[in-house]
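Quick one:
INPUT:
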């Protein structure tokens, strides 16, 4: 058995919040766009990553996922995000920190999800 990707579904009260986090802040691109439909939805993509964003207030209240994005250049990622979107830096991990398990990490939060940026 072989799998090629994991594509999570993320639910937002307002899909614009997800687009702001993933597209504006993290540099994903919109690969499929139905944000103006009756049930707003879009697919954001970057490198080999793909995430489905949905606007659904009821499901957004039930789900608050957390993701880890692994990089080989955490300093560059942190510098770019802290300059362009400092409001997303998580108050509990707002700077690059060497964690007890050996990874360097910092975290983002957009009101719906948490994203930990990690370098081993």
């Amino acid at each position: 058995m072989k799998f090629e990707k994991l594509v999570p579904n993320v639910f937002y009260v307002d899909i614009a919040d997800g687009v702001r986090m993933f597209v504006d802040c993290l540099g994903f691109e919109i690969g499929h766009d139905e944000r103006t439909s009756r049930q707003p939805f879009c697919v954001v993509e970057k490198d080999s990553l793909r995430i489905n964003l949905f606007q659904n207030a009821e499901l957004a209240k039930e789900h608050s996922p957390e993701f880890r994005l692994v990089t080989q250049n955490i300093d560059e990622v942190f510098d770019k995000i802290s300059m362009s979107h400092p409001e997303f830096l998580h108050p509990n991990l707002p700077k690059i920190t060497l964690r007890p398990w050996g990874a360097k990490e910092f975290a983002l939060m957009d009101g719906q999800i948490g994203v930990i940026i990690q370098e081993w």
